């Protein structure tokens, strides 16, 4: 009896505490939403973003919506908007490599959306140093990036520079940049201010137009890449400082609703962010644009997960083509026989023990077997 009363009182107490907490929490969220909604109306929008549809029309292109069921499973062929932009807006992706596994994952996933990928391999010892310590100039991050920028061909309209733990939706970058004149000077990303310099933080990646690259190449030389004082892991600050001497400054890249497109952190930090995360940001940060361009994936395995969620996993609202059984070129009962023939075994029948032994020999070393699978080039698209 006393046990039941005690249990009831505990539940009642938890309910009261939860109710008080919820009542306190709801006004906080409501206040934040109202504050953000009020501020959004006063934002200075990125001026060229709404011109995308106009740009398409000027290029004689019209869009129609095709159901995913038909797009994926029918035999009809369509030119996707993303493919048209890939062919029309060239993007070179420069990845600053501190962790080779991250770089490999980036190339196997989101890097496929780039017209070309260039890896700038940084010194391994730099990974262990997080403070901006003065280092050997020739091996500094800025010097290595600077030398890479000097060699960039003018066949690329845009250059995206990111760290190896960044995930980029290059299709959305093209959506942003397509209406822009790439021969002019553009410097796009997530603008912050440090030491009175406005620059785009490398945590979110940044984009340089062909015009900006040409201005940098005029300003720089192989010698000037190492003559200035540089600091480890501060190439983003230094390139912003250099561009400011050319009167090239960061621009507001938020979408037409004032939502952020270049993100410096992973999604958990973005959704549940603290004001301290973005205390250096020039523009108010409101998460998150449906046309987001970059965010941090943090690790290689998460890049594969994000790639699956963003590029492969699809929700079908109608249609029935995808529900039809796939045609099998080999009858199901002959699959195992085909497997044996591939290994030079022509028997019409093998026992379960013999079949198991064949697989055991094939996967005698699970670690080596997994390594072979990883080394195989797989198209994740």
UniProtKB/TrEMBL annotation:
GO terms for cellular component: membrane. Keywords: Glycosyltransferase, Membrane, Nucleotide-binding, Signal-anchor, Transferase, Transmembrane, Transmembrane helix. Gene3D superfamilies: 3.90.550.50. Residues 117-248 form the Fringe-like glycosyltransferase domain. It is found in: Membrane. It is an enzyme of class 2 (transferase). The chain crosses the membrane at residues 12-33. One of its GO terms (molecular function) is glycoprotein-N-acetylgalactosamine 3-beta-galactosyltransferase activity. Pathway: Protein modification; protein glycosylation. It comes from the Eukaryota. The keyword Glycosyltransferase applies. Belongs to the glycosyltransferase 31 family. Beta3-Gal-T subfamily. This is N-acetylgalactosaminide beta-1,3-galactosyltransferase. The lineage of its organism: Eukaryota, Metazoa, Ecdysozoa, Arthropoda, Hexapoda.
């Amino acid at each position: 009896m006393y046990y039941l009363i005690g249990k009831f009182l505990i539940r009642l107490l938890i309910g009261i505490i939860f109710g008080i907490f919820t009542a306190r929490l709801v006004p906080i969220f409501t206040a934040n939403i109202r504050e953000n909604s009020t501020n959004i109306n006063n934002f200075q929008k990125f001026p060229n973003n709404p011109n995308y549809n106009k740009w398409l029309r000027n290029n004689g292109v019209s869009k129609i919506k095709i159901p995913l069921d038909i797009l994926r499973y029918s035999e009809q062929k369509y030119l996707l908007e993303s493919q048209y932009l890939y062919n029309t807006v060239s993007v070179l992706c420069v990845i600053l490599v501190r962790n080779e596994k991250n770089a490999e994952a980036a190339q196997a996933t989101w890097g496929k959306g780039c017209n070309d990928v260039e890896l700038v391999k940084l010194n391994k010892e730099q990974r262990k140093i997080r403070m901006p310590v003065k280092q050997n100039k020739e091996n500094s991050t800025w010097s290595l990036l600077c030398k890479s920028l000097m060699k960039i061909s003018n066949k690329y309209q845009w250059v995206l520079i990111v760290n190896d733990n960044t995930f980029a939706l290059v299709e959305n970058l093209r959506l942003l940049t397509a209406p822009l004149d790439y021969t002019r000077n553009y410097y796009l990303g997530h603008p912050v201010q440090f030491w009175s310099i406005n620059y785009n933080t490398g945590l979110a990646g940044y984009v340089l137009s062909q015009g900006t690259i040409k201005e940098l190449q005029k300003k720089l030389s192989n010698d000037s890449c190492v003559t200035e004082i540089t600091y480890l892991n501060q190439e983003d600050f230094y390139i912003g400082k250099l561009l400011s001497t050319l009167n090239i400054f960061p621009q507001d890249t938020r979408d037409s609703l004032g939502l952020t497109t270049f993100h410096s952190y992973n999604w958990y930090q973005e959704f549940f962010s603290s004001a301290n995360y973005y205390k250096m940001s020039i523009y108010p940060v409101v998460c998150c644009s449906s046309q987001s361009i970059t965010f941090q994936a943090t690790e290689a395995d998460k890049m594969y997960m994000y790639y699956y969620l963003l590029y492969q996993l699809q929700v079908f609202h109608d249609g029935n083509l995808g529900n039809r059984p796939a045609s099998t070129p080999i009858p199901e009962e002959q699959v195992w026989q085909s497997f044996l023939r591939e290994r030079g075994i022509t028997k019409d029948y093998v026992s379960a023990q013999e079949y198991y032994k064949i697989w055991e020999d094939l996967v005698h070393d699970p670690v080596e077997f997994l390594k072979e699978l990883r080394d195989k080039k797989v198209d994740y698209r």
